[in-house]
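Render this sequence as a predicted structure.
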Amino acid sequence: MRFWHIATLAVLSVLTATPACAQPASHAELGNRAVEAFNSGDYDEAERLWKRWAELDETTFVPWYNLACARSMRGDGEGAAEHLITAIERGFSDFSRIESDPNLRAFRATDTFEQLQTAWPAFLDRRIDTQLEAARRVYGPRYSYIKDEKHRLGLVSAYDTVTSRQAREEVRLVADWTIRNLFPELGSPSSDHPDPWVMVILPTREHFAGWARQTYGDMPASATSQLGGAYSHDDKKLVTVDLGSTLRHEFLHVLHFRSADRLGQSHPIWIQEGLAAIVEDMGPTSRGPFDPVPSWRTNSIKRLAQQNKLPGISDFATMPRDRFSGNRPLANYAFARAVFMYLHERGQLGEWYSTYTQTHDLDPTGRKALIAVTGRTLNEFDDDIRRWARDLPEVYEQNRPPLLGIGARLDLEHGDGPIVRKLIHDNATRAGLRPGDIITGLDGTPVRDLNEFYRVLTGLEAGQRVRVDYRRRLEHRRTTVVLVEAR
């Protein structure tokens, strides 16, 4: 899961050229060398390298945007305009970057900038229509194509009408929760210019595997099966085959980016991933029917706290991206989620984000905002969250499944729900379940993977009757199952 913020020219070129973006090594080398030349003032060499990159990859906008910056730094605003128009034609859509990038000062003095500023909203609307039509040509009539004006999304779905509608409902719930608790400004259109549209692709398993290979290169089938999806802010595209936690996580990235872009800020990875992870598992709490709940991630935090192995927030908040993602990433994601759950349970999450964004230039790590909002020193915060984590309830999860179930063996593949592979108890047979059925809800709660399924079983007992929602091919059904002890 990549969540990039294009804060400077150098970051734009280097991050987009990294192997994680599935760019060939030659692109990465060209991008890095161009940045070095640009930073040293050798614009001739920087332009030569970026032009070479553009020749090697005719689909990316990055070298063209960077060429525009190089031209502008030379004082050639009109030359910058030509390159920038090319970047826009190839997918660039972040007008706030054009307005704030110090490398584009000369371009902003041109008539082209004023014309682009005026035409930008209409341009974005035309682009999403073009993108939806292009998607229709790629995926064909089996998919549905919907333009969500409220959330500025182009939704392309391989699923049936009911499942697609349920996915859109998940998007709505996440947006409503986020506006109430984190980004209230997103409840109103931007006063300067509209947020860019985002394409949300919910593909078939076959199309998803093709996208994964194109994005990440050749990877083992086992790795592909564990990949739920990702959001690329460069491309304004969210692709996921998991309609549960991954869809919620990646859509929170979309909303977070919109907030940060309006502010002209870049937030560190622990904040990016912690905020996105908080909506992975949602359910009814005392604060409302759709709210963050304990999950397999908080299970791991509870165990780490009991072993006195939780990281200190001072070091954690300054962890580099490569270390966060490469060194014990599951623990890092879990702790980042836990920090924001801790704040949310105390009614301080929105206050923290507001304080953080107001003081961002003084402390982009977020530590000073934690001190200001909680009234605790960082050491006191560490002690408090450790105590809080130890008292977290433990829920059933895939690695620690419950000793009860619906009388069926389920598959853990990503998608719109766990798949019934085999009936192992008469209760499941009497309820009318069959192998191949997709479990989409349990006890009135949507479930899209085994961790969600097991989490909902937490607190239930054998002999209890529960409602099970499921899909059989294109038909959505509902039954009641008496829970049984697992064999």
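Summary. The chain has 22 helices and 15 strands. Confidence is low (pLDDT under 50) at residues 1-25.
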